[in-house]
Amino acid sequence: MNRVYAVGIGPGRIGQVTGEAKEVLSFCEVIIGYTVYVDLVKKEFKGKEFQNKEYITTPMKQEVLRCRMAFEQAEKGKSVAMVCSGDAGVYGMAGLLLEVAEEYPGTEVVVVPGITAALSGAAVLGAPLIHDFAVVSLSDLLTPWEKIEKRLEAAARADFCICLYNPSSRKRSDYLRRACEILLKEKRPETVCGTVRNIGREGESYSLYTLEQLRDVETDMFTTVFIGNSQTKNVNGRMVTPRGYGNE
């Protein structure tokens, strides 16, 4: 059977690409994806096995077309990898590939996991996600803001640690502020929070804030935001959420 692999390449640095992802990318004849992610593969993978591959890219908002292009290549008998940043199953292309696969019954979709920003960013900050946590994207491109608000409210009431993807952009410059104002209804102003920018790439940096301070912080699409629960603390400049081992 023909196969299309949905491959998560992590945050962008080759050291954070899983062994399975490297293996799949090395034997696939065609690598397809959003232009930025394909360029990362070209930059990081320079072995002989990557010299004669076919690279296919599309810009944003052409995800369905990209999936169909992948299946069309697979139907020609080629091994195909659809690359995504982070994990292909977390805000990635795995779900859409599986939906579009209904149009191509002769082709199987294989999902190859990767390291998503919640995990790689948490490692930079310290250990903010040791206990239960929620991940919410602030992008309303595919999800109405009203639904995002409800999810933030529910996560805050449940005292989850919260990881925010896509906190702001040029068109959504005030979305992080709006999110913080929602969270402040349930969380204390001094709640420990953190941001990580350019995870795993050149210029990686992180900062710690209180939730009240975070409201006025400027972020972009290369930033991942972490909001602690009621137990999260600043330990020597690192963000730590206790699991409760010391109480055993």
What report would you give on this structure?
- By secondary structure, the chain is an alpha/beta fold.
- The chain has two domains: 2-112, Tetrapyrrole methylase, N-terminal domain (Cobalt-precorrin-4 Transmethylase, domain 1), CATH 3.40.1010; 117-240, Tetrapyrrole methylase, C-terminal domain (Methyltransferase, Cobalt-precorrin-4 Transmethylase, Domain 2).
- Helices cover 30% and strands 25% of the residues.
- The protein is built from eight helices and 13 strands.
- Strands 3-2-4-1-5 form a five-stranded parallel beta sheet, with helices on both faces.
- Helix 2 (35-44) links the parallel strand 2 (30-34) and strand 3.
- The chain is elongated and about 55 Å long.
- The N and C termini lie far apart (52 Å).
- The mean pLDDT is 93.
Could you list some keywords that capture this structure?
Methyltransferase, Cobalt-precorrin-4 Transmethylase, Domain 2, 5-stranded parallel beta sheet, 8 helices, elongated, 5-stranded mixed beta sheet, 248 residues
How would you summarize what this structure contains?
The chain is α/β, with parallel strands linked by helices and 248 residues long. It has 2 domains: 2-112, Cobalt-precorrin-4 Transmethylase, domain 1 (3-Layer(aba) Sandwich), CATH 3.40.1010.10; 117-240, Tetrapyrrole methylase, C-terminal domain (Methyltransferase, Cobalt-precorrin-4 Transmethylase, Domain 2), CATH 3.30.950. The chain is built from 8 helices and 13 strands.
